[in-house]
Amino acid sequence: MGTTCNVFDFLITRIKDYIPLSEAEIRMIESLFVQEDYRKNEILLQEGSICHKLFFVAKGIVRFSQLKDGEERTYVFRAEGAFCNDLESFLQKTPARNSITAIVPTTVYTITYDNLQVFYNALQFGDRFGRLAIEQIFVMVVNHLTTFYSETPQQRYLRFAQNHQHLIQRIPQFYIASYIGVTPQALCRIKKKLLLDN
């Protein structure tokens, strides 16, 4: 029970990073969000299905991936404190282009599209939260695409290591290799070269 309270409190803290909340609004949020627990490698969203939920990662790590030319490619990791989903699928009710999978045992809070509309309308600053949270998701995707096509694999690895120091030991190396667009063997060579250079 204590853990449940703690992860819900984390959700409230993160929402408060965007907007102020009254006690009544916190109780409403508790009725709108649902806690879901996923095992390691369990799928939260399957590519090709409709994304009906906004996810808040309360504990754990998820990865976004796509099947391209028969190969699964990882392109985003989201960890504790992040809101995420397949934005296009969620907003337009179209098949998701991505799968979202738990890398480790993961607890998320989810809110459906319909309940998110209730959130927007019932909370004094609900609309502001929606705009800021969706902007964050959009910027995350655009930044990754921009750096992927403008940086070398070594630069992408260095950026990942700098921006995600707290994650790098928790994510399997073959997912990191996929994320920066190389084979696991090439990632090993990059890491060895960086060690020698230092």
Question: Describe it for me?
Answer:
It is a single chain. By secondary structure, the protein is an alpha+beta fold. It has two domains: 2-150, Jelly Rolls (Sandwich); 151-198. It contains eight helices and eight strands; from the N terminus they run ααββββββαββααααα. The strands form two sheets. The chain has a four-stranded antiparallel sheet with strand order 1-8-3-6. Strands 2-7-4-5 form a four-stranded antiparallel sheet. Strand 4 and strand 5 form a beta hairpin. The longest helix is centred in the last third of the chain and has 25 residues, at 126-150. The model has no long low-confidence stretch (mean pLDDT 90).
Defining traits:
elongated; Jelly Rolls; alpha+beta; 4-stranded antiparallel beta sheet; 50% helix; 8 helices
Topology:
Blueprint: H1 2-16, H2 23-32, E1 34-38, E2 43-45, E3 53-59, E4 61-68, E5 71-79, E6 83-84, H3 87-92, E7 99-102, E8 106-112, H4 113-122, H5 126-150, H6 153-163, H7 173-180, H8 184-197
Antiparallel strand pairs: 1-8, 2-7, 3-6, 3-8, 4-5, 4-7
Helix pairs in contact: 2-4, 4-5, 7-8
- Integer-rounded radius of gyration: 18 Å
The N- to C-terminal Cα distance equals 47 Å
Strand portion: 15-25%
Order of strands across the widest beta sheet?
1-8-3-6
Structural class: alpha+beta
Q: What is the number of strand segments?
A: 8
State the share of residues found in helices, binned by percent.
Answer: 40-55%
CATH superfamily of the largest domain: Jelly Rolls
Order of helices and strands: HHEEEEEEHEEHHHHH
The top-level CATH class of the largest domain is: Mainly Beta
Mean pLDDT: 90
Q: Which overall shape is indicated by the principal axes computed on the Cα atoms?
A: elongated
- Give the CATH architecture of the largest domain: Sandwich
CATH T-level topology of the largest domain: Jelly Rolls
Total helices: the number is: 8
Largest sheet: 4 strands, antiparallel
Uncertain runs with pLDDT below 50, 5 residues or more?
none
Number of domains: 2
